[in-house]
Write a structure and sequence with these properties.
The complex is a heterodimer of chains A (129) and B (836). Chain A is mainly β. Chain A has one helix and eleven strands, in the order αβββββββββββ. In chain A, the strands form three sheets. Chain A has a six-stranded antiparallel β-sheet with strand order 1-11-10-4-3-2, with no helix packed on it. Chain A has a three-stranded antiparallel β-sheet with strand order 7-8-9, with no helix packed on it. Chain A has a two-stranded antiparallel ribbon with strand order 5-6. Chain A is globular, with a radius of gyration of 14 Å. Chain B has 836 residues and is an alpha/beta fold. Helices cover 29% and strands 21% of the residues of chain B. Chain B is built from 25 helices and 38 strands. A five-stranded parallel β-sheet of chain B has the order 3-2-1-7-19, covered by helices on one side. In chain B, strands 9-16-10-11-12 form a five-stranded parallel β-sheet. In chain B, strands 21-22-25-24-23 form a five-stranded antiparallel β-sheet, sandwiched between helices. In chain B, helix 10 packs across helix 12 and helix 20 crosses helix 23. Chain B starts with 6 loop residues before the first strand and ends with a strand. Classes of the chains: A mainly beta (129), B alpha/beta (836). Chain B: One of its GO terms (molecular function) is heme binding. Chain B: Keywords: 2Fe-2S, 4Fe-4S, FAD, Flavoprotein, Heme, Iron, Iron-sulfur, Metal-binding, Nitrate assimilation, Oxidoreductase.
Chain lengths: 129, 836
């Protein structure tokens, strides 16, 4: 996604009233790994990769499941790690790294994956559009 | 450029030197300017004559060949085998064979030499043979079938090689030498005596100062040799190896200048007395000398290339220093080894009769320069001495220290001390300077320096020297030779392996907690996690689908299937040895139909089913396991397949049951996690239909058991496997492979195939043999025990997964929705589905 497209997306977002919804439960997650979830939004369905890092300063991340390099929905199946202190996921196909925090691709500055706010509400995993 | 304007270059002879010239022409782009035609009188294309005696140890003509079968055709070189040139017409500039006449603009004589057979009455009797070509070896092998004893006439380098070949054929062997000692050219009286003792200890009889007068019918054996003192020796087979003579007949007949004792006279450009005709290799006489070694022949080929392409290189003679292993005995000779070419030279000698080592140095009268050296029984100081000699490096104050036994490591000459002109690899003419140039151009490790310069890819004798030069230079340039696997561990894979083993660490979290680099976030990454996952599996073989191990795995291991480019997976059940019942074959077809899977036969003799959706994998495997299949580990860095030919059960040529062996091996090593994937091949006879020599482990049946080859590879960088052990029985075969694989698992780098591991292994194949076959590190039993643990703990990962609801949870397209991924779109091609 280009920077301009990103800005437009954020502008569109800011006009909306932030809404949250339950995506799945904690038991659906796999510790130190990822799972994929289906997410209906007003803009249409999204596929979200959820990563769960129990015991870490930030335990839960939601990032686009779609890998722009292979055009396949596979990000949740990548290996989670940290590079220079930042939590990342490596694409299982061509191995690019994406920062979980903001979706930035470490190998290609021009590529960023969409990320979402996500949190636990009790045992529910709660996502905000 | 039209082909008619190209010059015609005809090369007569397709030995090692003639072939090297073709390679040089190809590599230097000279073929754009010339049409090259090669005539070889043998049926085989060029082969490695230096290692001829390995022919009897399982290396066949194909394995000895110096290039692929299509090399000449691929590069547009016309190669006429089995076609001898019978005459040269210099006026018409044509050569004639029995099949026709061929025009040339330039002619290259690379006809080599022929074995000298002393003019002894009876030397043409049946069973009196020579040792030079593959056909000669076939004749020797045929004759040996009805022989119990064999004699080699000639105790020089080639004679001892021939003796080794006769021993390989299980003949009681004797060597007869005219001179008072063996290898009179290379060693002196003391060295010769030591050599005799060593060779006699191998059961080879050595008779020196014997001149054969005649050969006649024997009483107990086929032949009787009668010597000058009327003593006799009876034998069934005689091989003459009493030196070589240049094959200069063609040159004589067309009146080129010939030396007094034979050989076609050449100048520094390798031109004969007719400038349109060049001569290279053992047929050529330069400065009154014939060079009977391959390295000077290669130098001549390079000079010929230059002459043919208007270059300005000159042949300036060649160093005849050699390092040999004859009948397992080290012999080294450097420069003026006898000290008879340098008046006033001083000799240093060291003789250890207990360990049977003899070392001699010839030093200039001022004690500063090494003029020559002679080594028998141990060549470990050869490299260092050769560098002192070849580069004129000033000797240490006490030169004797170079050949005296050391309590610690021998004082090797540091790479620093070598000038840039120092020849590191004489086979491929690579100097220290050209290694620096390769590093300048971007080579950043040993393997890439080897690939770029070809250093150490000939005889391999310079391997350790090359490594020290490269390591030293990289370090000097501040190229961080950081062996850390990634930012999370300051350890190599091998170190991590040892830590895991010694401390019995069973999880990644424990390992990173105790041994991770400080400041790490305790997460690891996609480099260290799969590597540690593999190490843990190699050591303990717990299911990789266990909760503690699952985050370590690449997606392929996680889902026990191979992710394809559209996010679907492929499924490969194990079909051990490529043997499958019709019933199981039907099940594969039914499963493929039911789940709409694209089906393809793999190179490893099994069936790959593509396009499986993540959520279908458990059902697919449920049906496969029900039918008796188990996982094929196609997704893992682990044993893949054991390919086999059909073997003696069906094939009229097979000598062993190769399918049976393949199945046993595949079932033994299935599930073994390793630094990289491992492939086996088992062939039922030397025809090698299973292509075992392109595998990590190759096994070829013999009449007496199995020959084992190791570290082959296909793929991007093909590598022939090397013969490792011969005629093993089943138990010995398993034991050897157990040790070999476990040693590889222990010591290889992450994602390093056995071929690359082997090429980087210090000490090379010899070292590997010592560790595995001779158990030089005393770890053989431990390696076997470890392998047994892995074998005993094997369980099919898929069988474990489908019976565990917790593990199955992962196989959902979405945790909150059961629909399949709608973006996976297939289209149809040739009656099957493929990604759109």
């Amino acid at each position: 996604m280009t920077a301009t497209a990103m800005k437009q997306a954020m502008v569109t977002q800011s006009r909306q009233v932030p809404t949250g919804q339950k995506l799945c439960s904690k038991a659906d997650l796999v510790a130190f790994s990822g799972v994929a979830a289906w997410f209906e939004t007003p803009q249409g369905p999204k596929q979200v990769a959820l990563f769960y890092l129990p015991g870490h300063p930030r335990e839960l991340y939601a990032i686009d499941h779609h890998d722009p390099f292979s055009n396949a929905n596979v990000i949740a199946h990548g290996i989670v790690g940290d590079i220079k202190g930042a939590a990342v996921v490596a694409s299982p196909l061509y191995k690019q790294h994406f920062r979980l925090e903001d979706g930035q691709c470490l190998e290609d500055d021009s590529v960023t994956l969409r990320t979402w706010k996500v949190s636990f509400k009790g045992v529910d995993v709660w996502i905000e559009e | 450029m039209s082909t008619t304007s190209k010059r015609n270059v005809v090369i007569i002879g397709n030995g090692m030197v003639g072939h090297h010239l073709v390679e040089q022409l190809v590599e230097n782009g000279a073929l754009t300017q010339m049409n090259v035609t090669v005539f070889g009188e043998e049926r085989h294309r060029a082969y490695d004559r230096v290692h001829l005696s390995e022919y009897f140890k399982g290396r066949d003509a194909e394995a000895l060949a110096l290039c692929d079968a299509d090399y000449y055709a691929r590069h547009g070189v016309t190669f006429n085998s089995s076609e001898a040139v019978v005459s040269i017409d210099r006026a018409a500039k044509t050569v004639a064979t029995e099949r026709g006449h061929y025009a040339y603009d330039h002619l290259v004589l690379a006809t080599g030499s022929y074995p000298f057979v002393p003019p002894i009455p009876g030397n043409d009797r049946e069973g009196c043979l020579v040792y030079r070509t593959l056909d000669d070896l076939d004749a020797i092998r045929d004759a040996a079938q009805s022989a119990a004893t064999g004699v080699v006439v000639g105790g020089g380098l080639l004679g001892l090689e021939a003796a080794n070949a006769l021993r390989g054929l299980n003949l009681e062997t004797a060597v007869i030498e005219f001179a008072p000692r063996l290898m009179p050219m290379q060693v002196d009286a003391e060295g010769g005596e030591l050599l005799r003792e060593k060779i006699e200890a191998l059961g080879v009889q050595v008779l020196t100062e014997r001149a054969t007068q005649r050969i006649e019918d024997g009483a107990a054996s086929r032949h009787r040799m009668v010597f000058q003192d009327d003593k006799i020796l009876e034998t069934d087979l005689i091989v003459f190896s009493a030196g070589i003579r240049p094959r200069d007949q063609l040159a004589r007949e067309c009146s080129l200048e010939i030396g007094e004792r034979g050989g076609v006279v050449i100048n520094d450009q390798c031109q004969t007395s007719d400038p349109a005709i060049l001569a290279i290799g053992e047929v050529a006489l330069w400065n009154q000398s014939i060079f009977g070694l391959v390295a000077p022949g290669y130098q001549m080929a390079k000079t010929a290339l230059s002459t043919l392409t208007d270059g300005n290189a000159s042949f300036v003679g060649a160093d005849m220093s050699t390092k040999l292993k004859l009948l397992g005995v080290d012999v080294g000779s450097i420069g003026d080894a006898h000290g008879n070419q340098n008046p006033g030279a001083r000799m240093f000698r060291y003789l250890d009769p207990l360990t049977q080592i003899y070392r001699k140095m010839v030093v200039s009268s001022d004690g500063k320069k090494l003029l020559g050296a002679m080594l028998v029984g141990d060549n470990s100081v050869y490299d260092t001495l050769l560098q002192y000699y070849a580069n004129g490096i000033e000797l240490p104050k006490e030169p004797a220290s170079l050949i005296l036994p050391q309590s610690g490591a021998a004082p090797a000459l540091g790479p620093d001390a070598l000038p840039e002109t120092a020849m590191i690899c004489s086979c491929h003419n690579v100097t220290k300077g050209s290694i620096f140039a390769a590093i300048d151009a971007g080579a950043s490790d040993l393997a890439s320096v080897k690939g770029d310069t070809r250093a150490s890819t000939g005889c391999g004798g310079c391997a350790s020297l090359l490594k020290s030069v490269v390591d030293h230079e990289l370090a000097a340039r501040g190229v961080e030779v950081d062996k850390s696997i990634c930012e999370h561990f300051q350890h190599t894979r091998q170190e991590l392996y040892d830590i895991v083993r010694v401390e019995g660490i069973k999880t990644f979290s424990e390992l990173i907690e105790k041994h991770g680099a400080s400041g790490a976030h305790h997460l690891g990454c996609d480099i260290c996690k799969p590597a540690v996952g593999s190490i843990l599996a190699s050591c303990f073989n717990e299911p990789i689908t266990d909760a503690a191990h699952i985050p370590l795995q690449d997606t392929n291991d996680t889902f026990m299937a191979n992710m394809q480019k559209n996010g679907t997976y492929s499924v490969v059940p194990r079909i051990a040895g490529g043997e499958i019942t019709p019933d199981k074959l039907v099940v594969l077809g039914q499963v493929a139909q039911k789940y709409s899977l694209y089906s393809k036969i793999t190179g490893g003799q099994r069936i790959d089913l593509f396009g499986a959706r993540l959520e279908d994998l458990p059902d697919i495997w449920g049906e496969l396991i029900e039918a008796g299949f188990e996982t094929g580990h196609a997704y893992g860095k682990s044993l893949r397949t054991v390919k086999s030919c059909v073997g003696s059960t069906w094939c009229r040529y097979g000598v062993q049951d190769s399918v049976g062996m393949a199945i046993k091996l595949e079932n033994r090593y299935k599930g073994l996690r390793a630094p990289h994937k491992i492939k086996f091949g088992v062939s039922g006879c030397t025809r090698e239909c299973a292509e075992a020599q392109s595998k990590d482990i190759g096994i070829i049946a013999t009449e007496n058991g199995w020959n084992l080859y190791v570290c082959g590879n296909g793929g991007m960088r093909p590598r022939h496997a090397e013969l490792f052990a011969t005629d093993l029985d089943n138990e010995a075969l398993y034991r050897t492979i157990d040790r070999f694989l476990m040693f590889y698992v222990r010591t290889a780098d992450r994602l390093q195939r056995t071929s690359v591991w082997r090429e980087n292994l210090e000490g090379g194949l010899e070292y590997l043999k010592e560790v595995i076959l001779d158990d030089s590190l005393g770890m053989g039993e431990e390696l076997e025990r470890q392998m047994q643990t892995v074998v005993d703990n094997y369980q099919c990962e898929w069988a474990g997964a489908i019976s565990d609801p917790d593990k199955l949870k992962r196989f959902r397209s979405y945790v909150n929705d059961s629909r399949p991924d709608p973006s996976i779109i297939m289209t149809s091609e040739r009656g099957q589905l493929r990604p759109a």
